[in-house]
Sequence to fold (134 residues):
Amino acid sequence: VNVVEALQEFWQMKQSRGADLRNGALVVYEMVPASSPPYVCYVTLPGGSCFGSFQFCPTKAEARRSAAKIALMNSVFNEHPSRRITDDFIEKSVSEALASFNGDREEADNPNTGIGAFRFMLESNRGKSMLEFQ
Fold:
């Protein structure tokens, strides 16, 4: 499987199914300047998420494939319904934040507090995937 090609096709398919991709379905690769191994490559997805090569890469082509592999895995995983920001997800996340910081319920309803701002951000992104939210 050509993972670089598969990643591009994945995003083109998302666009053809109506995904709102501001800059189209273009996947952008950037190499870190280096004259010898290990080579490092970053891939930026149409939604803005960025992933880098994750293993020792003796060639620039291998670095590109490595970055594409991790980006494709994240893109596909992100499509699972459990990765969507739903009302249940928001309530659970806010409750966990309140418990972690010993906050009270009023804090969650006040957008001027950290937890309130967190709740507002989640509610503003309801229906999006975690990768889109990121």
Observations:
- The helical segments are 3-16, 60-78, 87-100, 105-109, 114-124, 130-133.
- The longest strand covers residues 28-31.
- The CA atoms of residues 3 and 69 lie 6 Å apart.
- The chain is about 50% helix and 10% strand.
